[in-house]
Fold this protein.
Amino acid sequence: MSNSTITNEFALARLSAKFGDKIISSETPFDLLTIEVSSADAHEIIQWLKEDEVLKVSYLTNLGGVHYPTEKDREFAVVYHIHSLVNNFRIRLKSFIPLSNPSIATITDLFVGANWMERETFDFYGIIFTGHPNLTRILNEEDMDYHPMRKEYQLEDDTRQDKDNRFFGR
Amino acid sequence: MGKITDGKVETIDYQGFQLTTLDKAIGAARANSMWPLPFATSCCGIEYMATMGSNYDLARFGMERMSFSPRQADLLIVAGTISKKLAPILRQVYEQMAEPKWVLSVGACASSGGIFDTYSVLQGIDRIIPVDVYVPGCPPRPEQIIDGIMNIHALVKEESLRRRYSDKYKSMLNDYNIETDVK
């Protein structure tokens, strides 16, 4: 972040001084500080970032999921993009959770805006945000019985009944 | 003294009246005073708005008033992508329209799902409601939409007054599982 008032190195040092080993790893792709934290620590670290007097990373830009089907016990990632409007500084947190228990604590108590983002992530990936006030589908049909963005479906599904091949030149 | 023009209309020149059948007269009245309900969801809806606007001026075909209430509408114009989540709402709008009613499907998405060959999009509205005329294009230009409406007019003029009593119409609604109060 070229014109932010704090540097990636300063923010990482401050986080490491506070949390130590809870910061599992860090990198700066495209100059964006990205740290990996465990799903148990994510809520605590986001709360600290929001309330810290120096960093003031108090604006949730985005929250989403990723599916890595080949990574054993790290199948799902929840990615938080948070932003300090005061310091013009951005940081990204990643937290990996296993397919066997895809759950992580909600951050709706910190950011009200996380409510619909967590519902969307649940809708498309089936990630359970424990403590969410209303974790129901938001975009897809209510009676859908699968999570469509998981990479376990063929791109071309031969068993689909609803499409008419005449219209697609097949 | 009379002049037969198209087999049914008999005109008596300079006498101030015409002879025709009731079907023809009412068909012409219906066709030239339709109230369309625009069910517009995306870019086809924008083209439809251009069609309604002053350049293309749908009003010259007797469509001055857009009916945003299905109860008063004669023609349902579906313009745009219909997701599966929206499908029951579209069906309910169709069911709320009073007979006689017609449906115009505008654009590739409404007609076949278009480029959205995916799990969340309805692959053509004719899977849930009957369609009278399809307008191709992605999106179609206003001229094409007007051509579709002209085809609807041709249907309206030719159909019998009591289309809803015909066995063919009743069996079609039955295929779509749409209830009708006509016995």
In short: Chain B touches chain A through eleven residues (CB under 8 Å). Residues 26 and 161 of chain B are 8 Å apart (CA to CA).
